Amino acid sequence: MNDKSIGVFDSGLGGLTAVKQIMRELPNENIIYFGDTGRVPYGTRSKETILKYTRSDIRFLKTFDVKIIVIACGTASSAALPMIKDEFDIPIVGVIDAAVYAAVRATKNKKIGVIGTSGTIKSGEYEKQIKQYDETMQVFSRECPMFVPLVENGYFDTPVTEMIVQEYLEEIRARGVDTLILGCTHYPLLEKVISKYMGSDVTLINSGAEVAKYLKKKLDADNAHSKKTDENQYRYYVSDDVSSFEQLGGIFLEREINGQVNKIDIEQY
Ligand code: DGL
Questions:
Q1: Which of 77, 93, 172 is nearest to 126 (CA)?
Q2: Which atom, in ligand 1's list, is nearest to the CA of 184?
Q3: What would the pLDDT profile of 180-200 be if each residue is shown by its tens digit?
Q4: What is the spatial distance between Cα 135 and Cα 89, in angstroms, rounded to a whole number?
Q5: Which residue of the set 8, 73, 98, 253 is catalytic?
Q6: Which residues of 116-127 are buried (b: 16+ CB within 10 A; e: fewer)?
Q7: How far is the CA of 1 from the centre of ligand 1 (A)?
Q8: pLDDT the model gives residue 157
């Protein structure tokens, strides 16, 4: 048993797709979430910048003496985690392994689509890991840089969203994939529009939700579950405006988070 909190971070709202699932799968756990809203997006930045941001996000969460850190960000998981995982004396898990594990089990025709930020797609990490499972798998990748700003501005399901989804996904759909990895944790917030465009026979893999399932297995294996919840079971921190995060995050999590979000200066970490 381990009553310490779980630390989760992302560049903004996207990591809440993992948090939502962690709340469901692990109702006794305490969660500290950091959304780096002052520096979003990560996906268009250089590798050096993504490394720098990832290190400071981890240092911030470590100030709470958390038991594990979940990088609920496809960009930081692919472009930074492989390089930094041995720098910290704490278990750190990213979203790539869990999403790949789910996708290779879901596909029947061995054609998998991967969408993510520019940083994620350029890293080639999803493709590499899928081929490690089975090198006959065909992988079709596409960066979708406009999806994150759509989400951060609350354009979850609008005609503009539909147009951009069509623009980005046309080619992948034409390839006949039966499984599509939403390789950025922001994208499940656009799931309705993406699913409508891809059709009901295409399985969408939600990388945030998959990492939550993986986390549950890991806590089981390590016997590290929490048996009591804190008075403030869920705490949220951001590096920019609190009110828009409270509003959009609350809608997405389907729970009131007003008053639980605090602003910090991430440059200090
Ligand atoms: N949600 C993140 C990801 O999974 C970050 C997106 C961004 O900041 O560009 O890649």
A1: 77
A2: 4
A3: 999 999 999 999 999 999 999
A4: 34
A5: 73
A6: bbbbbbbbebbb
A7: 32
A8: 94
Count of residues making up the chain: 269
**Probe ligand 1: pick from 47, 52, 73, 151, max atoms within 8 Å of CB?**
73
Q: Tell me if residue 144 is catalytic.
A: no
Q: Which residues of the chain have pLDDT under 50?
A: none
CA distance 84 to 222: 22
Ligand 1 geometric centre to CA of 19 (Å) = 15
Ligand 1 contact, 80 CB (< 6 A): no
* Backbone angles phi and psi of 120, in degrees to 5: -70, -50
Which ligand 1 atom is the nearest neighbour of the CA of 74?
4
pLDDT at 254: 86
pLDDT per position as a tens digit, 100-118: 999 999 999 999 999 999 9
Rounded Cα distance between 76 and 9, Å, is 10
